[in-house]
Specification:
13 helices, three-stranded antiparallel beta sheet, elongated, alpha/beta
Length: about 300
């Protein structure tokens, strides 16, 4: 079954607090995961930001919404307890607790009005938490930029492609300075570039680089020639970049040989450009913050 949305978690969470005792939220998350029979993979599924699991995030928002409605309270950090209002709601034996039910309470309506929180949904219909909405919107934007980046790289001239690869490698910490890397990597024709660059600024090891601005997949023969070039240049490590893809045979060949060869296809190339700010610029920053509970603790 899919991971329940945060509104589906409200009633099960409140029911587990019916004894009136304070409960650790981490323990409740584990109990709810067992109640909904989530698999280990579902428990590990992360938000697009990679900072928190989807299920943990949804339980936390179920707790936050019911706390804003006065159904539960937090006697101390990381612990929750049912309130008299929460008990009264449970006595009504509702089939479920959702935003519509919470809207009965003035405190929750005021909270929603202040924060202007809507109830966005995923394509499948499940309600998303605010973090999920923000993270998924960011990921959608990132993916569209990656596609556009790769299109731009494919349409660039061979000379520009050469400079791009040099810039990326230097931003990643390879090749020493831009000037040193640019001298080490030269034209090779065939819409490809190759050369040997420093692995670090001290030049403790060398990396052989080849990059091809191709449309067709790079096959095993090209990788075999590359591996031979490594030996010819007495290099133990190599990076092969392409704007296209690698064939299955090429990938399997790299896994079997002794030389350390890293294959970077068009998709990975665009992702590295995005990560190291090559060919992209920041147009806005939206820091995601949370209340620092420790700040408000009094002696």
């Amino acid at each position: 079954m899919p991971i329940p949305d945060y509104q589906s978690l409200m009633l099960p969470l409140l029911r587990r607090l019916v004894d009136g005792e304070a409960h650790n939220l981490r323990d409740l998350i584990t109990q709810l995961a067992e109640e909904f029979a989530l698999t280990a993979e579902e428990r590990k599924e992360l938000l697009p930001s990679g900072q928190q699991s989807v299920f943990d995030n949804r339980v936390s928002w179920a707790k936050t919404y019911m706390k804003k409605a006065g159904l539960l309270e937090s006697p101390r950090r990381g612990w929750v307890r049912i309130t008299p209002r929460g008990r009264a709601v449970l006595k009504e034996e509702p089939e479920h607790i959702d935003v519509g039910l919470l809207e009965r309470f003035e405190e929750f309506r005021a909270f929603r009005a202040r924060s202007k929180i809507a109830t966005p949904k995923e394509p499948g219909g499940d309600e998303q938490s605010p973090e999920e909405t923000l993270a998924r919107a960011y990921e959608a934007l990132r993916q569209s930029i990656l596609v556009e980046l790769l299109d731009q790289v494919k349409s660039a001239s061979p000379a520009f492609f050469e400079r791009l690869v040099v810039e990326l490698l230097v931003r990643m910490g390879y090749g020493g300075s831009f000037q040193e890397a640019a001298r080490a990597i030269g034209h090779s024709g065939d819409e490809g570039i190759d050369g040997i660059i420093k692995e670090d600024r001290l030049g403790l090891d060398a990396i052989y680089v080849q990059a091809k601005r191709w449309e067709q997949a790079v096959g095993r023969p090209e990788i075999q020639r590359f591996a031979g070039a490594l030996q010819g240049h007495r290099a133990r490590k190599g990076v092969f970049l392409t704007t296209a893809t690698f064939s299955k045979e090429a990938i399997e060949y790299v896994e079997r040989i002794d030389s350390k060869i890293v294959l970077i296809d068009g998709k990975q190339l665009a992702e590295l450009m995005f990560e190291y700010n090559v060919g992209v610029s920041t147009v806005g920053t939206y820091p995601v913050k949370k209340v620092d509970i420790d700040f408000f603790l009094e002696d």
